[in-house]
Amino acid sequence: MNFNWDVFWQYLLQPSGVYLTGLWLTCVISVLAMLLGCVLGLAAALLRLSRNPLLHLPVRFYVWLMRGTPLLVQIVFLYTALAAGGIFRFQDIELFGLLIPGNIQAAIIALGLNEGAYMAEIIRAGIGAVDKGQYEAGRSLGMTFAKLMRRIVLPQAFRVIVPPLGNEFNVMLKNTTLVSVIGVQELLLSTQMVTSATFRVFELYLVVAIYFLLLTTLWGFFQRWLEKRFGQSDRPSSPPPATSRMFGRSTLKLLRGR
Amino acid sequence: MAHQSDELIIEALNIHKSFGDLQILKGISLQVRRGEVVVLIGASGSGKTTFIRCINLLEEIQSGQIRVSGHPMGYRTKADGSLVRDSERNIARQRRDIGMVFQRFNLFPHMTALENIIEAPIQVLGVPRKAAVEQAQALLKRVGLADKAGHYPSMLSGGQQQRVAIARALAMKPQAMLFDEPTSALDPETVGEVLQVMKELAEEGMTMVVVTHEMGFAREVADRVVVLDQGELIEQGPPEQIFSHPTHPRTQAFLSRVL
Ligand SMILES: Nc1ncnc2c1ncn2[C@@H]1O[C@H](COP(=O)(O)OP(=O)(O)OP(=O)(O)O)[C@@H](O)[C@H]1O
Ligand SMILES: [Mg+2]
């Protein structure tokens, strides 16, 4: 077997600057895209509650579109195809003294848009899990729809949303590898660059796999804490803890099979 | 009761309500004066729940009018005479005047008893937190739960939850209170404590419309008993008259089943 342990240990334990930048980008893109996804998902879920077709039909279209096309295609479409078609070209912008390249903006927006569709469904299910009596109690106390949502329904829906939300972030961390196709130097592309210089393909891809495993495992622990903190509820059927899902022992339906 | 005046608090005029093709309320009219306690009785499915939900605009009505303290609730009459639902904001505002107590309590499970009570005064009426908390503590004392302020609903018995729910509704200082079978989801041993709170409320002069199967409560506390049957108001009068000398044959049939 052609395996160089020195290279493996060196890159695993003393990653070069390229690697660290990649790791940093992976985390930043994941977090920002997830935030965007949550905001879009919440807006979409609320609009879908509306009886007005002008409000809920566009949302259904959006969810249909995002779930019906590959994320990789969406990323390339947003960044490369729109620019090629002369429709929209992402420009580098400077924000708080920091230069943000166009492809990173596109990466965050594409991942966020895609995430929004999944979050919309998750939040909608969470809202649907809140007892109808809660709406009536809130209404009879004179609450408007906005107050009712903010103070009564969403806090209760949140407990149902937290476990799948954690899973979504796990998926998001891994999906950031897809934005390597538009030249964002996250972990995968960084690895590719290093391998093309060192030719240690096996070792370096093993390292990148371990990095992702570390990221998702760390997140798994955080998720477990999050569920303890927010997922606790007086509902009799609380979801199984994060660890059992992390190792895939249960709830296949909570994951979205990627 | 002693506190009654001639001022009309709730006026329901010729209320019609259907679910799809099914007509549930076939022109019910009811007037409730300040301080009056009206008990609604009737067979299951006669429309009691639907009727009091209409008063609070939790159900849309097809025709008729509801007025609270003389103000029409929830609907505007268009030029052609048809009814259109008022804006959400206006409806929310009008609902403040009517407290509602549900069969299944519907306390907010993510809030303590105290938080349940201060929520609407702070969020809806804009009462300062300190004042709202003081009022909530007084209300909890009034319903006999001063020591349960920090308890979540899941830690309270059914009877205690329902008393918190009553306090929560009272915190809005409503003109009238609606009760939909407030004791029928309770264990028998906790029914009494809830009825006691309601009785005290009635004695203090609260205007109340109560749907209940507790005929003892109706006899003792009601100023007027109203009998619904298949979406129609078939008979009403003081409790002793309804219970001892019902005139309508369907009232007689209903009472002979439940008494
Ligand atoms: N949302 C709804 N959709 C369709 N039909 C309904 C709905 N709510 C109530 N009904 C029907 O309206 C009728 C009256 O119901 P309602 O709940 O008002 O009766 P009730 O007098 O309160 O009965 P109970 O004593 O069992 O509570 C029933 O036939 C019921 O099936
Ligand atoms: Mg009923």
TrEMBL record, chain A:
InterPro entries noted in UniProt: AA_ABC_transptr_permease_3TM, ArtM/GltK/GlnP/TcyL/YhdX-like, MetI-like
Q: What's a Gene Ontology MF term here?
A: transmembrane transporter activity
Biological processes annotated in GO: amino acid transport
Where is this protein localized, as stated in its record? Cell inner membrane; Cell membrane
Q: Which residues cross the membrane?
A: 20-47, 68-88, 204-222
Q: Which PROSITE patterns match?
A: ABC_TM1
Membrane topology of this protein: Multi-pass membrane protein
* Keywords recorded for this protein, A-Z: Amino-acid transport, Cell membrane, Membrane, Transmembrane, Transmembrane helix, Transport
Q: Which residues form the ABC transmembrane type-1 domain?
A: 23-223
Which Gene Ontology cellular component terms are annotated? Answer: ATP-binding cassette (ABC) transporter complex
Against PANTHER family, the record matches this protein to: L-CYSTINE TRANSPORT SYSTEM PERMEASE PROTEIN TCYL, MEMBRANE COMPONENT OF AMINO ACID ABC TRANSPORTER
NCBIfam families recorded: HEQRo_perm_3TM
Query: What biological function has been recorded for the protein in this entry?
Result: Part of the binding-protein-dependent transport system for glutamine; probably responsible for the translocation of the substrate across the membrane.
Query: Which family does the record claim for this protein?
Result: Belongs to the binding-protein-dependent transport system permease family. HisMQ subfamily.
Record protein name field: Putative glutamine transport system permease protein GlnP
Organism this protein belongs to: Pseudomonas koreensis
